[in-house]
Amino acid sequence: MEKAVYDASLGRGASQAHNTGTSSSGESSWKENAALFQELNDELCASLEQSAIRPTYSNGENIYLQEDEAEFLYIIESGHVRLSHLREDGSTFLYAIITAGQSFGELGVFQRSVHADTACALGDVVVHKIRRSAFHVINEQSAEICRALAVVVAKHYRSYIESTRCLSLPSLSARLAHALLSLLESIGTPAGSDPKDKSVISGAIVTQSDLGAMARGTRSNINRRLKEWERAGIIKIQDRSITVLNRTMLERNLLNNESNF
What we know:
Blueprint: E1 18-22, H1 35-38, H2 42-51, E2 53-57, E3 62-64, E4 72-86, E5 92-98, E6 103-104, H3 106-111, E7 118-131, H4 132-141, H5 144-167, H6 172-187, E8 189-190, E9 198-201, H7 208-215, H8 219-231, E10 235-238, E11 241-244, H9 247-256
Antiparallel strand pairs: 1-2, 2-7, 3-7, 4-5, 4-6, 4-7, 8-9, 9-11, 10-11
Helix pairs in contact: 6-7, 6-9, 7-8
């Protein structure tokens, strides 16, 4: 495969992956947090795991492009992946940044069609890619795999619809609040000892430009709104990372569709 850096304005490019071999039993922890595998019994999990290959992508490499044939489903072992959609007006909508244990590329595999988005490595990324044909071969033996895939596709589609709906909101505060809340769910890390208290968004992963691409705002307006929220005690910004101090107020900004700050 040819190597190219993702061009956000065009949404086109190519990627080069370095295959590190097939997965082994010592590398199987990646499936524990994968929603797809949580829907399957151990036998089906093992069948899919055995069929997976394990490539590594470098920062900025495209894993696949929008409209590419969906030949594989991907599950992240380590690193982060940006998922974006090239809109008809030529703009790029960054709708998700995902991390280890999360999957992507399911819709095209389920439909035996093409990818509806572009996936790009953010930093070094190791994935497990499972060929589309493996799903359909196993499905002939057990319909459970098709059901599990449908559950994951429906969940991700609902999330995408919610993101596009919020993109049309007139208030930047509402759009930015939704972006932050979504990022907390997908890549948030704990500020303290409670692993369930996901309140920190790492500045090494998400930039203010990323927030602008997710919330349909300029970098300067995003920066201004974040500073206002910091003064109001809703968030704290340190070393480019954002810690959400008052999640209720963020949710209120989203629900009210306007900001009081």
